[in-house]
Each structure stands twice: as structure tokens, then as C-alpha cells.
Amino acid sequence: MSEVKGKQSLRFAKTPFILNSASVVGKKEGEGPLGEYFDVIGNDDKFGCESWEEAESTLQKEAATLALGKSGLTPEEIRYIFAGDLLGQTIATSFGLLDFEIPLFGVYGACSTAGESMSLGAMCVAAGFAENVLTITSSHFASAEKQFRFPLEYGNQRPMSATWTVTGSGAYVLSTQRTHVKISGITTGKIVDYGIHDSLNMGAAMAPAAADTIAAHFADFGSKPEEYDRIITGDLGTVGQEILFDLLKKKGYDIENNHSDCGIEIFDAKEQDTDAGGSGCGCSASVLSAYYLPKIISGEWKKVLFVPTGALLSTVSYNEGKNVPGIAHGVMLEYVP
Amino acid sequence: MSEVKGKQSLRFAKTPFILNSASVVGKKEGEGPLGEYFDVIGNDDKFGCESWEEAESTLQKEAATLALGKSGLTPEEIRYIFAGDLLGQTIATSFGLLDFEIPLFGVYGACSTAGESMSLGAMCVAAGFAENVLTITSSHFASAEKQFRFPLEYGNQRPMSATWTVTGSGAYVLSTQRTHVKISGITTGKIVDYGIHDSLNMGAAMAPAAADTIAAHFADFGSKPEEYDRIITGDLGTVGQEILFDLLKKKGYDIENNHSDCGIEIFDAKEQDTDAGGSGCGCSASVLSAYYLPKIISGEWKKVLFVPTGALLSTVSYNEGKNVPGIAHGVMLEYVP
């Protein structure tokens, strides 16, 4: 029987495994420090499509197809898809996954969706409701700029605290089949509002939520930062990382020595002019699959807490003067010998 | 052990129960044929707020508070919320549920979200991951018009096939505590695209998805339409209902005698000038809670299939010439003596 741990966590008895995963990213991501690790790098950020939204749908389609192929599974062998993206009414997901004809649970947690979809998928497999599920998320720089900021043609200037939305998608097959990586537990986030108003400083908006979920995780599992080979946040960037360290220190936890942030890793901020780092649903999803997961599979890392973070806003909420609250969903990954 | 049934369904062994629920609606809904059944009817569709979006958040907050109160539970006793709405980046949910400080899984399935959130909540309770969860969805006529069509000030004309977005919210506490209504199973929908292009004919866009999920439900459970006291769709309206009947007849099922549609019931289309009927996440959620659930609780109805339907589009997808695919999620409700 799975254990309900503390206030926000579950430890799975019958742990789901990550059977396989895939990452598909854009040109700029391919030119960054992690370029060699991604499965597919598009030469053309439109991925042969007519619109940015279609391109983002194609990212999802390709990542899903690749994850299935690597897993040796057909779409018929996938019981459910848990998927989402950043666009209004999650249209990248709807049009990207239509052809698979697999029962779909659409999810939305802004950039935390990679953690949310993986949490729900893991719950489903751990409960015996499915042998295999697919979890997938995406983001696209150009569709996100159009949705949240300004169309590319406008050529707006960006403050140093701004993050650069990653063009990418990561897909995961979670399964009862034993592999070297199990999802041993989850810590589900609450909405946390620290009164941040600046939609171009997502890191600051999301860091309190990350701190809240990470601290809840330690409390629920009675664990300490040093037990984890790495605590990986989604896309706090350099600005958010500092805030995260400060907030966690106030709660009695020091994670400076074993923290990584997918948004910081994916770009060379100086060379690639990406300001505070990468962001978006596709950032943490593609970086976990391409760069961090192999370290767990090989046994180099034994225990990892993956905590994608989301900023909860829309242009409407922002223009109506609302704060930008955050949410973060934690997934505990462990090496299986 | 819960049973995986057929291709898209689950039958729960440890069935979750609907501990209690609540409905909050706007003035027009209160003036309609179901007016006497809703828990709260607002006199002012802004619900004392400064914007339509805030008003929609307030709908969720009030419905959630009321459902908790009726259940005799505090927010601390709710393990998870599964919630969503129709707005871009589901902001009605983010700002409506912030104050509860409960771990949140945000979901998006357009108007099918009432069924999706209830399905996920039921899976969570059935798996033993929670004793109590809250599922909640909302829609608001004015925030939806602004999001999807034209601001109210524009005074646009509406074709007869158009539906009227319901201002309302329905909240449900799903629990291990035994009551007179159990969620005995679910049938999870796939995206179904019949090539409908008209965003003002949602009924036609969603009917094929409803037919697909209902037929899958019968096939998975080996059941027949006449075994159900009622098969209740979300918001197909009069135009969608006819298409649903035709499509299901082609699949060998006749549900004409025991079909109801929340969108048809909630308004008096002629008197209230709502064209094809009501729609929105809040339509099926509020109508099930206020009007249909009491019939199961009393034992008048023994078995009901609740199938909210969603149209997957955004103004961006629509303006880029995309079709409007649909999705429908089925929830089987049974009377417990």
C-alpha cells in the first residue's frame, strides 16, 4: 500500500518506472551547452509548419513518437496521456496529440506542468490503473512570446531578469516494467503568492513556490538536502535561484551544494543572450530527459528531487493588476540497481 | 483491486463517494428552469468584484467553501484539489483557489473539465492516495465572451447554433466516506476531430466526442443504454443532441429515451434567448450538483452516466484555420442504498 506522507507527499509502494523518454528541441537549444544530449534538434524552429503553434504541436508529436519508439511500445499499449503546454486552452497539446487516439488528461500548471503530468501519471501507474502511460509537455519561444509578451516582429527589449522560453518538448513513458529509474514519491505543490508583480521576473515569482514544495518534501519524508545527489528545479534562472537559496535557508535547509536549475543549464546566458536563463514547460521536460536522467540510469546519481516550477499568470490577469503566484510539483527519482 | 475495463475504462473496487457538492450560479441561470435548485444565485454577475475574471474566481471560491461546509470538512482535511476553467492559463482557478492552500492539480479539458477533474479525483481516492479531495470547475458568460468571442460592449449578433456560456461553478468533495452516491467507474475520452470549423457551433464539434466516449463506455462495461436511468451530457445543446443521437444510432445504440443535456436544461432557450443552450465548464458542474445528484441521492435514479464534453480550440487555433476537435470524459454514478 502506498503511503500518504505528511501534508503533501506520497511514497509509492508499487513504484512506477521511467521506461524511456525523449527530448526534441529547437536550434538555439541545440547550440547551447547541452546540445549534444538532446535526441532531436530542429534546424528550423517552425519544424516545417505554417505557424509557431503548429510547430509546438509538432514538437510534442515528435517527442511522443520517439519516446514510444525507444520504449518499443505502440500507441495502443499506452493507456493514458497526461499532457499540457503554456498556450491558452493548451492548443499545442490538443493538436499535437490528436492523431495518437489515446485517452487524454489535459493538465495545466504553467511551467510546473512537467512535474504535474509526471506526478499524475505516476499515481495512475502506481495505483494499477495502467501498465504504461505517457506524460508530455512543450513550450516554444515564438508561440510563448506571442501569447504572453510581444510578437517577435515587435522587437521589444528584455530586462536582465527575463527568461528565454525554451523551444522544446520532453516525453516520458511511465511503466510497471522495471528499469533503472523509479519514481519513488511525489510532493504536490500549493499555489504560493509572494506578491510579485513583474511578469518579466518569473524566477522571483516561482522561487517561493519552489522553496515551499522542497521544504514540504523534506518535512514529509523526514529527509535532508544532503541525501539527494541533486535537487533540480525547472526554470528559476539565476535570479530565482538566489531567492530559492535564501528562502530555504530561512526554513533551515541549505541546498546550495546540490542544486541545479534546468533553465540555467540549457543556455550559455552570456554567449546566447538569454538573460536569466531558459524557461517554459519544455525546458525542464527536455533537460531532465536529455541530461539528468542518464546520470540516474547509469547509477552516477542515486536520488534526485525534480521540481518544475510554474508562474500562474495570463496577459489578462497581469493587465488587470494581479500578482504572479507560483506553483511547484516535486517528483522523487531513485536509481534501481 | 480496481479493474481495467476494455480500452478506455476503469471500474473501481474501492469506490469513491460524493460526500457533498455545491453550486453557485449567476442571475440569468437563477431565472431559468432550474433556478430553485442551485445553492447560491448571485444578484450581480460581477459578484462584487472589479473584473469578470475576478468574479469567476469568486464563483469557485464560494462553491468550494460551500461544498466544504456542507461536508463538514476544513480545508486541511482536503488532500488535493483537481480544478480548471476555460480561461487562458486557467486564471479563474489560480486566483480562486489560492487562499485554500491545498495541493492543486490544475486540469484543462475545455467544457469536459468537470468530468476530467472528477475522474482524476476519483482515481486518487480509489487508489488510497487521499481520503478527501475537492474537484471544481467554473465558467462565466462575460469572461468567456471576452476570451473567445467579443467583449460584451461590442454587441455582436449570435447565430442560432451558438450556446450561451453559463455563469456558474460546481464543487464536489469525493471521499472514502460512504454516502448514497458512489463513482463506480470512469471512461476517459480521446480527442475526436470530425473537421468542424465553426466555433459558434460547439454542439456539432463536441457531439462526435460524446458519441465516441459513450459508445466506448458501453463496449468496455458490456452495458446497454437502457441500464442507465439517465445519460447526461454537458453542453451539447439542441444542435449537438441531434448529432449525438444520429452518431450513436450508427454505432448501434439508441439513447433518445434516457438522454439529458445540462446545456438544454439550464435555460429556457425561447424565453431566455440562449439559442442552442447553455455551455461552459460551470454548466455541467453546477447542474449535476443542483439538479441531477439529488435524484441519485434519493434513489429515484440508480445508475447515471455523466459525460461532460469539451471543444478544443482557442482564438489563436481558430484564427489559424484549425478545426475544432472535441473530447468527452465519462463518469459512472450509482445509487448506494
UniProtKB/TrEMBL annotation, chains A, B:
Coiled coil segments of this chain: none
Signal peptide location: none
GO molecular function: acyltransferase activity
Stored Pfam families: SpoVAD
Top-rank lineage group of the source organism: Bacteria
Record NCBIfam families: PRK08304.1, spore_V_AD
Protein name: Stage V sporulation protein AD
Organism annotation: Roseburia amylophila
Gene: spoVAD
